[in-house]
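Researcher: Re-running this chain for the archive, since the previous output was lost when a drive failed. Same request as before.
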Amino acid sequence: MRNPDWTTLPTDLVPRIGGLLISDDASDFVRLRAVCHPWRSSTVETKKSADCFCPRNWIMISDPNSSPSDMCFFNTSTHKSFSFDLSPHLGTYSLFRSFDFLFLLKHKTTKGFALLNPFMRSLIPLPSKIKSNCANVNAPKRLEDLILDLSGVFVTSSFTIVLQFEVDCLVWTKPGDQSWVYAEFGLWSYSNVLFYKDRLLVVTSGDKGLVQINLANEIPNQLQVEVVIPSNELTFLQKECFLVDCDGEIILVTLSRKDYCWESFETYKLDLNEKTFVRSPNLGNHSIFLGPNRTFSISCEDLPQVTTNSIYFQWRRQNFGKRGIKSYLHSNFKIVRGAN
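Model: Regenerated structure tokens:
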């Protein structure tokens, strides 16, 4: 058939195709739904899946404050891009913060917050009240009391919305709930929180070491914390460290410095099921980007601009308050490029 009529595909086949697309790349699913009305109608239920609301490996590469009408997202695995116009939402809302592929908006009249998914154009109002319990008698009463310290937004496969704050606490809720549940945890100040397969991985400041918090199921009033690797087996965690999802593998990067100069980087591959770790001196065809607000890995295939098996590190100069990016070849950490 030279000119097949794709709109006549069997109605049960289109959602199956949509399910395969959405599990691989949410942007392809959006393009599928844009073809015609029958395809949109037959993928309504697929649109409600968690994979659709939580697309993987997407990062924002344009500044929403400078170009809200031309937002661009980039997939670190497939290297595809996705464009979005934020400006229609800025009549009623103002942009409060952006995280990876999500926007946190603040209503100009009610001052309430909402979470916007640009892929699905879905806007979820967020509750203001924080539920108190006996274990956290000093918990803040309202989201507004914490919001300025917000450092991470995660959405699980069960559509639980989790907010992480720099003051080492979490709140979570379900769409439609009237309040947040509050919990505290001790985060090692020289580490980050990594969201991976409905789990939060945290290097704690206490004696627990590397722990995981399972968010896959309905979350109880108290966090269920499981020790993955105890602190007495992770002596190198006294250094600055980062957790990175490298194409489905968890890499822990440790940094050593002396007199404000970085001396060495070491990488360890973590096995969460076996609760083991092993030194991993090679990143293959990937490179890792480390920064105070974001860590991610990128496949270097078809990207000659990125040096394979490298660590790109963003740091803050202690004396001048300036930021810079340096690239280190992972094999011997030779400085490849420096920029202020």
